[in-house]
Amino acid sequence: MTDTRIRYRERLSPSLWMLVTAAVAAPMLALTFTPYGALPALLIGVAVAVLLITALIAGSPAIRVEGTVLRAGRAHIDARWLGEVTELSGEDARTARGSGLSARGWHLLRGGIDGVVVVQNTDPDDPVTSWTISTRTPDRLAAAIRDAESAAARV
């Protein structure tokens, strides 16, 4: 029997400031369309702001550890190919997202999210050496990945 239990789930939704910025599009766009009348301008502005906010939320990537598979956005890897897991926050996370970012690694990074988890890839046939993933709860994601690695080792 295969393990399909969801060990971790997180959506990297945009920050509040990003959503506020999208909402500010409503009055700016409404001003642009005022020559057509106040009501049409207001409706167009609100509709565009709602569409922008919806697109930002719907387009945000998800991270899941499901069974023995790590899924980050559209990418996935079986836990048997995962090595050392490092959870970072603060200055260490900023370094991992910047100068410490592996050129041969796979990255799912989002602004406004402080935490980072770096996982080594041990698959000899994969040119990617590590995964660097933004997360709001690096300790929980790292624990879920370690749990999936343990489950994969038992299989």
Describe, in short, the structure shown.
With 155 residues, the chain is of the alpha+beta class.
Q: How does this structure look, described?
A:
With 155 residues, this protein is an alpha+beta fold. The strands form two sheets. Strands 1-2-3-4 form a four-stranded antiparallel sheet, with helices on one face. It is built from five helices and eight strands. It is elongated and about 65 Å long.
Strand content: 25-35%
Number of helical regions: 5
Radius of gyration, CA atoms, in whole angstroms: 20 Å
Structural class: alpha+beta
Output the strand order for the largest sheet: 1-2-3-4
The number of distinct β-strands equals 8
Distance between the termini: 10 Å
Poorly predicted sequence stretches spanning 5 or more consecutive residues: none
Secondary-structure element order, as H and E?
Answer: EHHHEEEEHEEEH
Biggest beta-sheet profile? 4 strands, antiparallel
Overall outline: elongated
Write the layout of secondary structure elements.
Elements: E1 6-11, H1 16-23, H2 25-32, H3 38-58, E2 62-66, E3 69-72, E4 75-78, E5 82-88, H4 90-97, E6 106-108, E7 116-121, E8 130-134, H5 138-154
Parallel strand pairs: 6-8
Antiparallel strand pairs: 1-2, 2-3, 3-4, 5-7, 7-8
